[in-house]
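Field notebook, page 260. I keep forgetting to write these up properly, so this time I am using the form the group agreed on. The chain and the ligand, nicotinamide-adenine-dinucleotide, are recorded exactly as supplied. Prediction of the bound pose follows.
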Amino acid sequence: MKLKDKVAFITGAASGIGREIAVVFAREGAHVVIADLNKEAADATAAEIGKDGPKAIGVAVDVTSEEQVNAAVQTAVDTFGGIDILISNAGIQIVHPLEDFPFSEWKKLLAIHLDGAFLTTRACLKHMYASGRGGSVIYMGSVHSKEASMLKAPYVAAKHGLIGLAKVVAKEGAAHNVRANVICPGFVRTPLVEKQIPEQAKTLGITEQQVIKDVMLKETVDGEFTTTDDVAQVALLFASFPSNALTGQSLVVSHGWFMQ
Ligand code: NAD
């Protein structure tokens, strides 16, 4: 087991990519905190994961709320005795052309992706520093941390911003053996993406199959979606890597959509 008795605080873990990371980490021996806006789904996920192995708990949190984030991290520490891994993963998508982008929606998206990353990082770092055990901070970026797409201005800006944040955490955290890295997935068929397929078909006046083939997967080497397990395996690599040799990095997992 690569994460035996480690404690992982995972935001947005009641669905999609975050949920799969929680499942894989629990299988590797970690205690997992399913921190999500959707408390019912978080509890259900925790119950499912916890039934045959290490413990899991669900906590309700809106990652844009300083108070709620601090309280959720404290609950995790009170339950499991510390935090070793933060996966800052909660996210949404909103698309509009720039000239029509409502300011309120721009701010909402940035708050979830960037304020959420900052608030959870700050709350977890204190415990990682105090424990003397160090830790691993992992941000859920995207190919959109490296590339742009039309209609996704705040998403692309936020995902690029996470790389900057990770580099600062890598520098400040090194003395405490805290590492920080970013995972940059291509399209993964989660509820976040399922919602976009009919929306884009309508906007672009093409079929849903064409959206998948000619828009989402067009630049991949093999026309395949990235899977939640692909992303979870990269998270496992970052979380279990034993030294500061691997820090301040961003790794793209996208079937070759983006190549560095
Ligand atoms: P998802 O919609 O399946 O899950 C997102 C989860 O985040 C949900 O459980 C939701 O309740 C939670 N959430 C939303 N707002 C929140 C808030 N304010 N506070 C706490 N929790 C909140 O989405 P997903 O596809 O699994 O996306 C997870 C992350 O992966 C996001 O950051 C997304 O940008 C990123 N990502 C996804 C893809 C993809 O193709 N699916 C690709 C690259 C990156």
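OBSERVATIONS:
- The mean pLDDT is 97.
- The pocket of nicotinamide-adenine-dinucleotide is lined by residues 11-12, 14-18, 36-38, 61-64, 89-92, 112, 140, 142, 185, 187-188, 190-193 (CB under 6 Å).
FOLLOW-UP: compare against the apo run.
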